[in-house]
Amino acid sequence: EPCPLELKVPSSETNFNDGVYTVIVPQQENIPNRVIGPSIALNPDKFLGKRIRVSAEMRYTGIRSDVAGAHIGAKILVIWKKSNDMVRYCPSPSLLGSSNGWQKIELDCTFPAKMKSLNFVLGIQQAWGKLEIRNPQYEILDEPRIPVRIPAKAGIVPLKASLFECGQFGTVNGDTVTVRVPGKAGITNQTR
Question: Which residue, among 127, 133, 124, has the nearest Cα to 58 in the 3D structure?
Answer without folding.
Answer: 133
